[in-house]
Write a structure and sequence with these properties.
Elements: H1 19-28, E1 40-50, E2 74-76, E3 82-86, H2 93-108, E4 115-116, H3 140-156, H4 158-161, E5 166-171, H5 174-184, H6 191-208, H7 210-216, E6 221-223, E7 236-239, E8 242-244, H8 273-283, H9 289-292, E9 297-298, E10 301-302, E11 320-323, H10 332-339, E12 343-349, H11 361-376, H12 384-400, E13 407-410, E14 413-416, H13 417-435, H14 443-456, H15 462-473, H16 477-494, H17 500-522, H18 528-536
Antiparallel strand pairs: 1-3, 1-4, 1-5, 2-3, 5-12, 6-8, 7-8, 9-10, 11-12, 13-14
Helix pairs in contact: 1-13, 6-11, 7-12, 8-10, 11-13, 11-14, 13-14
Length: about 550
């Protein structure tokens, strides 16, 4: 009997529609056993730059790394100190991980004494003023990016914006769509069909994606400074300036992090591309009395791009997003309207303090198989009532996912989390077998088995392992993260240098990005107010 089959007794009310098995069998019987092999995978990985003693860096983004505005692969997110590495897409996870390793080595060549903070939750903070906002130069597009971040800081506080994460970008191989259309008897595999199936994936990720917090969450504790001035955090003392939740998996994805109350009334449907674009467009065009009180342009100083519920689409903090590579100056919703969904961005992964680059192949393989499961499983539309349940499930697992006997909500009823998780992992065996086609090492099945062990033994989860390390060493969260950040700096600086061709690519890209920013800033530009109005226009 497999490890998956030993996890739980059969449940009386399955959460996964049995039609999933027919869809999976259809793929298996299609004669295209490698139909899932070769999907495109990419990662966006954020890390705070900190000083040698663990304080957030006040230094500008290193010029030797290129322009944060125009560099395709090395940029910044919210803060000038929040470095973001964006990989190209690869068909294999090992190539992706190698690129990410090479990028870390290149970055460390240009950081001097600084470190990359290796956890999602930030280092010791000294209020909002200690977190510098990213600067992108004097061009209109650069000013817009900075003003947007000023607005985020005023709306949500800069501490939340200093959280780091790992985003996994994925698109299915082209051959998958034709086979799936035949299995579902849906006619031609055109872009309309592809977009509809990506939205089916999004709905099922909302239903089942809490499992990612349980399996991979690694932010159960925070530095006390993160919640300074708040008495509603509900955390417990672990000593030495550390707060934690005993059964938490990912405080980053809880109500203390990205699932904050500020966006509780922003409901974005993923029932269809049309609904999604409609709701996001409404949110970025509907005034907010609360944000109007902050002001937009006050005494010549821009405080936010507008006073609407969302300044732009990216302000909506979703677990997963439908994406299309946008043209220059094109808003995300316009790109989706123009050409449909190209890939999905899964945003639930914490930066792992247990992995040098913050992520590993097992996680990526699991997410790839999970994406296939979510696409093949029937996915009914989600109404507002169910959406509330699903959002709460994510927060519940983020806050208390390892709690014995934890119950979630499904279809208006209580649902045992472990039984539900068991169903998901059992169903994923089939998608892993398809992804393993042609590889005798069966890496996807092995990745799935590793997750089954975490379900059987909560102490094996990354969140439990991090708490155990804190309790064993007696270190504070800050001390542990600083020690591990130093360890990883040594790892990357002592590692065999990357291929010289790769180093040359990074160096050339840095130089080209600086030249590109200079060209943008030297070009004739309209007044900023006109530029912004044109960008936000429907």
């Amino acid at each position: 009997m497999s490890a998956l089959c030993r996890l739980a007794d059969p449940v009386s009310q399955p959460r996964i529609d049995r039609r999933f098995e027919r869809h999976l069998a259809g793929l298996i019987n299609s004669g295209e056993r490698g139909v899932l092999v070769g999907g495109l995978k990419g990662v966006e990985k954020e890390s705070l730059r900190v000083t040698a003693d663990g304080q957030i860096s006040k230094a500008p983004h290193p010029r030797s790394l290129g322009s944060a505005l125009t560099h395709e692969h090395i940029t910044t997110d919210y803060s000038e100190a929040l470095l973001e590495l964006v990989t190209p897409t690869f068909t294999t996870s090992w190539e992706l991980l190698q690129y990410l390793t090479d990028a870390h080595q290149f970055v460390y060549r240009h950081l001097g004494d600084e470190l990359l903070w290796n956890t999602s939750m930030p280092c010791a903070l000294k209020g909002d003023d200690s977190i510098p906002i990213a600067q992108f130069g004097s061009s209109n597009v650069g000013r817009m990016k900075t003003i947007y971040r000023v607005g985020l800081g005023l709306r949500y506080g800069r501490a939340m914006q200093a959280i780091s994460g790992v985003h996994f970008n994925y698109s299915f191989p082209v051959q998958f769509w034709g086979v799936l259309a035949d299995v579902l008897e849906k006619g031609p595999a055109n872009q309309e069909f592809i977009s509809a199936m990506y939205f089916a994936l999004l709905r099922n990720y909302r239903r089942h994606g809490w499992i990612v917090h349980y399996l991979f969450g690694v932010s159960p504790a925070v530095c006390r400074s993160f919640v300074a001035g708040r008495d509603d955090h509900g955390l417990f003392e672990l000593g030495r300036g550390t707060l934690y939740a005993p059964y938490a998996t990912s405080l980053r994805m809880s109500d203390l992090g990205y699932r904050n109350k500020s966006q509780a009334d922003v409901a974005i449907s993923v029932n269809s591309l049309e609904d999604y674009v409609r709701d996001l467009s409404r949110a970025i065009s509907t005034p907010s009395p609360e944000y109007e009180r902050l002001g937009v342009e006050v005494d010549g100083e821009w405080r936010q791009l507008n006073a609407n519920r969302l300044q732009i689409e990216n302000e909506y903090y979703a677990f997963i997003r439908p994406k299309r590579v946008a043209r220059s100056g094109e808003r995300p919703t316009k790109a989706l309207r123009r050409a449909g969904v190209e890939y999905v961005e899964m945003r639930s992964l914490d930066v792992s303090a247990l992995d040098p680059v913050g992520v590993n192949q097992n996680k990526m393989r699991f997410l790839e198989a999970f994406a296939a499961f979510c696409t093949l499983a029937p996915s009914a539309p989600i109404d507002l009532g169910e959406q509330g349940e699903l959002d709460q499930n994510h927060v519940t697992v983020a806050r208390q996912g390892r709690e014995p006997g934890l119950m979630l909500r499904f279809d208006g009823r209580g649902a045992d989390m472990r039984e539900w998780a068991h169903e998901i992992l059992e169903a994923m065996q089939g998608t892993c077998e398809l992804l393993d086609h042609g590889d005798p090492k069966r890496p996807y099945s092995s990745a799935l088995a590793a997750q089954a062990q975490k379900l059987a033994n909560p102490a094996a989860t990354p969140s439990a392992r991090l708490l155990a390390e804190l309790q064993t060493t007696g270190e504070s969260f800050f001390e542990l993260a600083l020690r591990m950040s130093r360890t990883y700096k040594s790892y990357f600086t002592e590692l065999h240098p990357p291929d010289e061709t790769r180093v040359a690519e990074f160096t050339a890209a840095a130089t080209a990005s600086l030249e590109a920013q200079e060209e943008i800033e030297a070009a004739r530009q309209p007044p900023f107010r006109e530029y912004l109005a044109a960008y936000l226009a429907d």
